[in-house]
Amino acid sequence: MARTARPPIIAVMGHIDHGKSSLLDYIRKANVCASEAGGITQHVSAYVAEHAGRRVTFLDTPGHEAFQALRARGARSADIAILVVAADEGVMPQTLDALASIKEARIPYIVAITKIDKNNADIERAKTSLLEHEVFLEGLGGDIAYAPVSSKTGEGVDELLDLVLLAADLADIAADPEAGTTGFVLESTQDQKRGSSATLVVRDGTLHLGGFVVAGDAYAPVRFIEDFLGKRIEQADPSEPVRISGFSKLPAAGSLFSVVATKKEAEALAREHATEHAKVAERGIMAEGITELPIVIKADAAGSVDAIVHELAKVTHERGVVSVIASGVGSVSESDVKVAHAASGIIIAFNVGTDLIARDLADRDGVPIHTFSIIYELSEKVAELLSERIPSIDVEQELGRAKVLKPFSSSAKKQVLGARYISGTLALGARVKVLRGGGEEVARGSITNLQQARADVNVIKTEGDFGIEIECRTPLAYGDELVAFTVEKA
Predict the structure, then answer these.
(1) Which CATH homologous superfamily contains domain 182-268?
(2) Coil, strand, or helix at residue 51?
(3) Predicted TM-score of the model (pTM)
(4) Where are the domains of the chain?
(5) How far is CA 337 from CA 276, 302, 331, 369, in A?
(6) Of 17, 335, 28, 341, nearest to 183 (Cα)?
(7) In angstroms, how far is CA 463 from the centroid of its own chain?
(8) Number of alpha carbons in the 13 Å side-chain half-sphere of residue 410
(9) Beta bridge partner(s), residue 298
């Protein structure tokens, strides 16, 4: 079974109002061929565009629960990300959130500097703001490709798509059209005419008519397949988004799906998933922010499998969990590698070898196979691997506080205030949040100037009144509390 190049799956992410939707709309209208464009009857969550004779799949809602759920499972919804940054504002808080998600998913990304047609657009300033947040662009000491674009005129969009295709070539994105069909649920909906329906994105194999799709504890017969235009098709190839209706229940966004031949098999697999889900919920590992390490276990005997599962249940972490997604007796096979690859998991081989074909496939797909003969060494290694997979989290540490005495001037982005020192240290450049009333946070910004006794200073750390300028869009008022803070990784 040969793996061949498949169309890249692209997530477009960034701060609100920075032009994500406008960019996607322009690409869709300009690059979905005209003969099909008139057939678009509804807005779906994913679509396919063509550029330079090649197909590209765009996820229209990459920030929603499916993206988060797939990351929590260690699986990836996208191959490449486009980080959108507006030329008139530069990096903003949600830009940093999107960047953290991209880095956590460990996928390559390209920067699109949008809104270059606006009068107050400043591409160089946008580049500088990216540099200040350690996004090192090409030509500025780094290797992150970027393209200035306008979603109104289309300027730069072709160049951006060229960069997407180049990134796809470098990432060597491939699939086996003849393999068992797997993928993920992007979203699911319920309506009176269709019943329970879901938008699926095929990652490997080819989805044909007939058979049953199983996603978590839900399943559906594949009686018809609709492409992103709502047109019925005979089959769906790798990277293609499709809609399937008639699920037994709404499949969860972010669920991984597979295909079986009969209803009996579908029901059995759905029951198995439901049982596993119940166990997971019982152990309290479905909470937000919990990282999962999916594991396939192969051992020399059924008793060994049971012993390993028992030992792995002792591997715990406050922000992570080990999940045995498959197990069996005998050497590691090609199908074991495919199961682990679909979930971005690992394989544990206990006193067994690995088939040559499985080894080649694992090397090609980057599926780790860890071999052991002593159980306690196995559990120690798994604990280490789980810790490595858990992303660091941002913890805010308070630096100092002050009280607003009088607002002096206010602009669209900056506030000049008189304030009184309360505690700690307030330093030039520090991030600050604004608390009002009973301590409700109403805004965030950064300190751009400090004055004491009419002289510019870098730090306020003693009692008294002082002047402060804050980069912040929200007008501040008397009595507001300013809390300077720093963010540390934990």
Answers:
(1) Translation factors (2.40.30.10)
(2) strand
(3) 0.56
(4) 4-174, 182-268, 283-389, 394-489
(5) 20, 20, 11, 9
(6) 341
(7) 45
(8) 8
(9) 328, 349
Homologous superfamily in CATH for domain 4-174:
P-loop containing nucleotide triphosphate hydrolases (3.40.50.300)
Q: Which residue has the tokens 């390559």?
A: 108
Neighbour-count burial of 19, counting CB atoms closer than 10 A to its CB (0-12 exposed, 13-18 middle, 19+ buried): buried
Compute the distance between CA of residue 466 and CA of residue 464 in angstroms, rounded to an integer: 7
C-alpha span between 309 and 125 (Å, rounded): 54
In the 8-state DSSP scheme, what is residue 288? T
Residue 256 DSSP SS3: strand
Beta bridge partners of 321: 292
Q: Which amino acid is at 204?
A: D
Task: Identify the H or E element spanning 148.
Answer: strand 146-148
Q: In which residue are the tokens 């008189």 written?
A: 418
Phi, psi angle pair for 250, to nearest 5°: -70, 120
Cβ pair 80, 110 in contact under 8 A: yes
Give average pLDDT by consecutive 10-residue segment, the chain, 490 residues: 85 80 82 39 65 89 47 64 92 82 85 94 93 91 94 94 94 88 83 82 94 93 93 94 91 85 94 70 50 89 78 83 85 89 90 92 92 88 90 82 91 89 93 88 92 92 93 89 86
Angle, vertex CA 469, rays to CA 467 and CA 473, nearest 5: 140
